């Protein structure tokens, strides 16, 4: 029987590897040196492969093979050992001399893996589709790329999905006939030769493209693990990960986490690694591409993208084509939709630029491509405490952001050596990109609606933390120092509003509250005075912004209740006797007005969902109210049922920040041209009012909050030269009225606790 001709395309890089490939070929096909020449081992070299293909017939089978040196089995959450790094590194050309030694460490270490075979006829057909020509040097390069990718897939079957390795990225993208056709269109728009566009595209791709090398991934994990392993215990909700991993085998996943710390990508990568997900392509700013982080990170899957593209049409084209390639090949992506770390502790407004490139890239793919409909995965990364929170809080007051570099990295790693609680990782409900776009509808706000849906998913997945609950209590004390029982007097009803959340179960006991207070004392956020009959705790001097950072991470859990309380205060202030249905409609109108005022501070659900949530919250506040007989007290009677009023602590800082901005704007003449100088003026007025005790807390004075307030003014067309001064004054008065109602709510909340706070304080001072 005549054996069909076979070319074994060998990726062996050393004498030891060539010997392993020879042994594998002999055991698989028989003697490769037999006279019939049916099986031939060809090294992965362009010249030798071209010669072998030149005389091969269409029925020749090409079998790509590679030698893999996998590390020893260990728990997926363990840090890599030095031997593992050397074992993986032995595949690199510069370390060929290690191959024999690694093989000597364990006879099973060196493994030959074979990629899916293909006939030469099949390869020529596919080359024709991708390149537009089945012959010449372009076809040889195509076969080599196909062999590399086939061996990558085979290697993953051996090492697991953690190492999904793209190679020859720029060459593969630029060689595509579809990309060349789109490049020709761009060349026409720019009036430059198409070869110039392709060359510039290739350079852009080489600048940004990540190359996921297993040795580099393991080295990156080893080098960077001190940034998170010693600071936090990992608290991960794994319930949805099995289904998510299965979906990721059919379509690409786009992880969109919240951004609180420089360590966020490391924490998420560790979780996904431990659950056998392939390495994400993490999109980050090129401000972090300094040596050695940039050099190692790029080989570990980090895609360093320019912070601003400006008018560089070719760079934008390269980003879009890179996204399309990654989606089509089913590589997972990750980026931080807020565009930067939160300075206030709650989600920032999302940025839409990368989402636009994702949509455009997916639209360019064929209907049968798995990348046409990727899954968007909201991810919540939430921490009990952060070492870097002091710097984040300082930036709110106008302090400059410290430039990243080697000295900065060394200092950051030093800070991260102390244990400060848990890092909590939660995964929201995945969102089909196609479904999200369809639901958002056509129009200029389509991407904004998709991004807001992701943000809502992140908030829903974010658990409350003990530090968030305790700082909420202390910041609401009006500057008082509180005893343990006074703190618990707020924590207990707040704990009830938050439901049965395992993350804050420790606060059910006095010891749990004391432990949280002690951790806040240890980092200087809270101070404890122990010179009296019993200890008392208060926010430390100049630490209100830091405490507010932790409190603000809790607020989305209380938002609906806070809006309901404020709406009830609004209706009660009108003094009208209303029937049940009238009370509900009046509350709904007040809630919508508040929603519009704060829409750039919080992520509200769609109006129909928002109404349902308000009604559900009303049922929690006053069970059976909607079916009860009418009451002359109406809204005021409902407010009287509240064990704790959360509206002041939840909404007042943001309303007062908007009040500062509205006041400065009302006195401003003409267009707002210099926003920096305007924000300086707002900071000055805010500092003055804080010293005059006209603001609830020092955290109100925040450039980030002032910037959000400016977005409200811009949305209401109050910043242009033609803005009516009367409308600016009307906005100031509207905000002042809401502030007044929240202030009254704060006074009522303090009156409810007079026997615990004010009564004891007054008795002590009499």
Quick rundown:
Helices cover 53% and strands 9% of the residues. The N and C termini lie far apart (110 Å).
How are the elements arranged and paired?
Blueprint: E1 6-10, H1 15-29, E2 39-43, H2 46-54, E3 61-68, H3 82-89, H4 98-105, E4 111-114, E5 118-119, H5 120-131, H6 136-159, H7 169-175, H8 177-190, H9 194-208, H10 214-224, E6 233-236, H11 241-248, E7 253-257, H12 264-274, E8 281-285, H13 293-298, E9 302-305, H14 313-328, E10 333-334, H15 353-364, E11 375-383, H16 389-396, H17 406-415, E12 422-427, E13 431-432, H18 433-440, H19 446-461, H20 466-475, H21 484-497, H22 510-522, E14 526-529, E15 536-539, H23 544-552, H24 555-574, H25 580-597, H26 607-621, H27 635-639, H28 647-666, H29 675-691, H30 703-715, H31 725-752, H32 758-765
Parallel strand pairs: 1-2, 1-3, 6-12, 7-10, 7-11, 8-9, 8-10
Antiparallel strand pairs: 3-4, 3-5, 11-12, 11-13, 14-15
Helix pairs in contact: 2-6, 3-10, 5-6, 7-9, 8-9, 9-14, 14-15, 18-19, 20-21, 20-23, 24-25, 24-26, 24-28, 24-31, 28-29, 28-30, 28-31
Helix share bin: 40-55%
What low-confidence regions span 5 or more consecutive residues with pLDDT below 50? 73-97, 102-107, 759-766
Rg measurement, Å: 31 Å
What is the averaged pLDDT score?
84
| Structural classification | alpha/beta
Quote the beta fraction: 5-15%
Q: Give the strand tally.
A: 15
Number of helices: 32
What does this structure look like?
The protein has 766 residues and is an alpha/beta fold. Helices cover 53% and strands 9% of the residues. The chain contains 32 helices and 15 strands. Strands 6, 7, 8, 9, 10, 11, 12 and 13 form an 8-stranded mixed beta sheet that branches. Strands 1, 2, 3, 4 and 5 form a 5-stranded mixed beta sheet that branches. The protein is elongated, with a radius of gyration of 31 Å. It starts with 5 loop residues before the first strand and ends with a helix.
């Amino acid at each position: 029987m005549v054996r069909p001709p076979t070319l074994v395309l060998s990726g062996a890089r050393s004498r030891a590897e060539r010997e392993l490939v020879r042994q594998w070929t002999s055991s698989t096909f028989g003697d490769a040196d037999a006279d019939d020449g049916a099986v031939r081992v060809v090294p992965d070299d362009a010249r030798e492969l071209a010669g072998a293909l030149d005389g091969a017939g269409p029925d020749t089978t090409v079998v790509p093979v590679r030698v893999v040196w996998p590390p020893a089995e260990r728990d997926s959450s363990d840090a890599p050992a030095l031997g593992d790094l050397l074992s993986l590194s032995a595949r690199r050309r510069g370390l060929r001399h290690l191959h024999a030694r690694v093989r000597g460490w364990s006879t099973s270490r060196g493994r030959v893996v074979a990629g899916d075979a293909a006939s030469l006829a099949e390869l020529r057909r596919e080359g024709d589709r991708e390149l537009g020509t089945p012959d010449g040097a372009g076809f040889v390069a195509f076969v080599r790329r196909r062999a590399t990718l086939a061996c990558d897939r085979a290697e993953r079957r051996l090492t697991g999905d953690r190492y999904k390795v793209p190679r020859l990225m720029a060459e593969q993208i630029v060689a595509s006939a579809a990309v060349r056709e789109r490049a020709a269109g761009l060349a026409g728009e720019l009036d430059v030769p198409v070869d110039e566009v392709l060359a510039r595209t290739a350079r852009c791709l080489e600048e940004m493209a990540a190359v996921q090398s297993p040795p580099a991934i393991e080295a990156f994990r080893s080098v960077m693990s001190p940034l998170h392993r010693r600071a936090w215990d990992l608290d991960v909700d794994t319930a949805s990960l099995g289904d998510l991993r299965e979906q990721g085998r059919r379509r690409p996943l786009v992880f969109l986490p919240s951004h609180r710390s420089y360590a966020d990508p490391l924490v998420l990568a560790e979780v996904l690694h431990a659950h056998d997900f392939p390495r994400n392509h993490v999109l980050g700013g090129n401000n972090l591409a300094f040596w050695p982080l940039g050099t190692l990170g790029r080989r570990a899957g980090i895609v360093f993208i320019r912070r601003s593209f400006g008018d560089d049409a070719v760079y934008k084209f390269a980003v879009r084509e890179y996204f399309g390639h990654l989606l089509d090949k089913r590589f997972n992506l990750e980026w931080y939709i807020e565009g930067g770390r939160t300075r206030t502790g709650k989600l920032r407004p999302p940025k839409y630029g990368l989402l636009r490139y994702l949509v455009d890239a997916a639209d360019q793919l064929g209907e049968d491509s798995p990348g046409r409909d990727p899954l968007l995965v909201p991810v919540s990364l939430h921490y009990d405490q952060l070492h870097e929170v002091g710097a984040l809080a300082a930036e709110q007051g106008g302090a400059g952001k410290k430039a990243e570099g080697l000295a900065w990295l060394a200092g950051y790693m030093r800070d991260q050596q102390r244990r400060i609680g848990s890092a909590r990782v939660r995964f929201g409900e995945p969102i089909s990109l196609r479904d999200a776009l369809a639901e958002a509808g056509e129009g200029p706000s389509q991407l904004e609606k998709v991004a807001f849906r992701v943000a809502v998913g992140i908030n829903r997945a974010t658990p409350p933390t003990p530090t968030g609950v305790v700082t909420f209590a202390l910041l609401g004390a009006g500057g008082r120092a509180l005893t343990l029982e006074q703190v618990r007097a707020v924590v207990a009803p707040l704990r009830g509003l938050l439901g049965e959340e395992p993350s804050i179960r420790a606060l059910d006991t006095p010891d749990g509250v004391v432990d949280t207070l002690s951790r806040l004392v240890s980092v200087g956020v809270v101070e404890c005075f122990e010179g009296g009959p019993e200890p008392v705790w208060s926010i430390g001097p100049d630490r209100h912004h830091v405490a507010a950072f932790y409190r603000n991470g809790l607020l989305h859990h209380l938002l609906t209740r806070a809006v309901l309380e404020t709406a009830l205060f609004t209706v009660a202030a009108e003094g009208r006797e209303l029937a049940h249905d009238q009370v509900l409609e009046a509350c709904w109108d007040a809630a919508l007005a508040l929603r519009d005022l704060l829409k750039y501070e919080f992520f509200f659900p769609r109006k129909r969902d928002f109404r349902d949530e308000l009604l559900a919250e009303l049922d929690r506040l006053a069970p059976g109210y909607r079916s009860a007989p009418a009451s002359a007290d109406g809204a005021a009677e409902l407010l009287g049922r509240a064990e704790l009023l959360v509206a002041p602590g939840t909404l007042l800082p943001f309303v007062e920040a908007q009040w500062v901005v509205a006041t400065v704007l009302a006195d401003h003449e003409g267009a707002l041209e210099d926003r920096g100088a305007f924000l300086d003026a707002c900071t000055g007025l805010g500092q003055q009012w804080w010293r005059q005790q006209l603001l609830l807390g020092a955290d109100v004075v925040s450039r980030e909050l002032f910037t959000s307030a400016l977005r409200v003014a811009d949305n209401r067309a109050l910043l242009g030269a033609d803005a009516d001064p009367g409308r600016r004054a009307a906005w100031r008065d509207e905000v002042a009225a809401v502030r007044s109602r929240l202030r009254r709510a704060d006074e009522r909340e303090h009156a409810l606790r007079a026997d615990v706070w004010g009564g004891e304080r007054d008795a002590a001072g009499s």
